[in-house]
Structures are given as structure tokens and as C-alpha cells.
Design a protein that fits this description.
Blueprint (H helix, E strand, L loop, with lengths): L1 E2 L4 E3 L6 E3 L5 E7 L5 E7 L10 E5 L3 E6 L5 E6 L17 E4 L20 H17 L8 H20 L10
Antiparallel strand pairs: 1-4, 2-3, 4-5, 6-7, 7-8, 8-9
Length: about 170
């Protein structure tokens, strides 16, 4: 489902009222090839969140979540203890915060003392460095054009679904 809450806006340069052609909010369900499900949401109207980008993956034995506002941590919930194989049920279960900018982090040796965070901007510096390194070595760069095309197919399927009110296929992978 998509929605444009503000249907017209005043054009900054001309002062004319123009129809808005972009959605203000989108929420969709997805079914992946392996049978798992996904729920995606985006909106310009979550004003209290300047750049809230989160994800959560839930499986039979564990869950993991990430929040860009707290990017030095992953949150982990283990339902089934892999050491014993027993389910972790009871009042002492809960989410654990795992600090991910310790010395084991693959980029920490390029930055500060281990344990201090590397931030949002550092990920772009390393993305550029990784790109230049891979191209210089003659390797394949990922994501590539095929990944971008598949992403666009998903976005188009979401928009078709919002119009039709039906499930839509994103198309086969290339």
C-alpha cells in the first residue's frame, strides 16, 4: 500500500500549485523464494526519526536486529541455546546488545582505538576504498547492475501491487 498525504505543493521556483507525484508512505509484505516473509515500511512522516533505518530478522532459534541510530551494536535474541540445544524459556531470557566495533571488526585497524565507534560516514569511506581495491584487482563489484535491476523490479512490483490490491511478482532473478 502507498499513500500521498499531501496531494499538491507550491513549486518553489514558479509559485504554481503542482500535483505531487511521489508517495509519502509505503508499507508492503513480501514472500521470498525460500518461503520466508518480509514486512517493509517507509514514510516521510515519521518526523521524530531523522534517519531511522532498522532491520530485524527472526528465525526459529534466534533473532537479530540493527538500528542505524545505535550503529555500534547488534541486538541478538537466542531462543534456542546452541550450546545445549535447549529452548531459553523463562524470566531470564531477553535481547543482548553485541558491541560490533571491537578489534575484530574488519575496518577497525584503519580507525580509532578498538571499542570506539566508527560511524555512518566511515561506511562510505570503506565502500569507496573497497570499490577501488576490487576494480584495481580486476574483480567483480557488488552490488552490480544486475542487483540494481532486481531491486527496481521489486520496487515496480510494490507499486503495481499498491494499485491493484493484489500480490504481484517481482520477476525472476537474472
Amino acid at each position: 500500500d502507498t499513500e500521498t498525504f499531501v496531494k499538491e505543493r507550491v513549486h518553489v521556483a514558479t509559485g504554481d500549485r503542482k500535483p505531487v507525484g511521489i508517495d509519502d508512505a509505503c508499507a508492503f509484505l513480501a514472500r521470498f523464494a525460500n518461503g520466508s516473509m518480509g514486512l517493509f515500511e517507509s514514510t516521510r512522516y515519521a518526523r521524530g526519526h531523522k534517519a531511522l533505518k532498522t532491520f530485524e530478522l527472526n528465525g526459529e532459534d534466534a533473532s537479530i536486529s540493527f538500528d542505524l541510530h545505535d550503529l555500534q551494536y547488534l541486538n541478538y535474541f537466542e531462543y534456542k541455546n546452541h550450546g545445549t540445544g535447549q529452548k531459553n524459556e523463562g524470566h531470564l531470557t531477553g535481547w543482548r546488545k553485541i558491541h560490533v566495533t571491537n578489534g575484530e571488526h574488519p575496518y577497525m585497524d584503519h580507525w580509532w582505538v578498538p571499542g570506539l565507534i566508527i560511524g555512518y560516514e566511515h561506511s562510505f569511506v570503506h565502500a569507496c576504498a573497497d570499490f577501488v581495491r576490487v576494480v584495481g584487482q580486476g574483480g567483480t563489484v557488488h552490488p552490480d547492475f544486475r542487483d540494481a535491476l532486481q531491486t527496481q523490479k521489486v520496487c515496480e512490483a510494490v507499486l503495481r501491487s499498491a494499485k491493484s490490491g493484489q500480490w504481484e511478482e517481482a520477476g525472476a532473478e537474472l
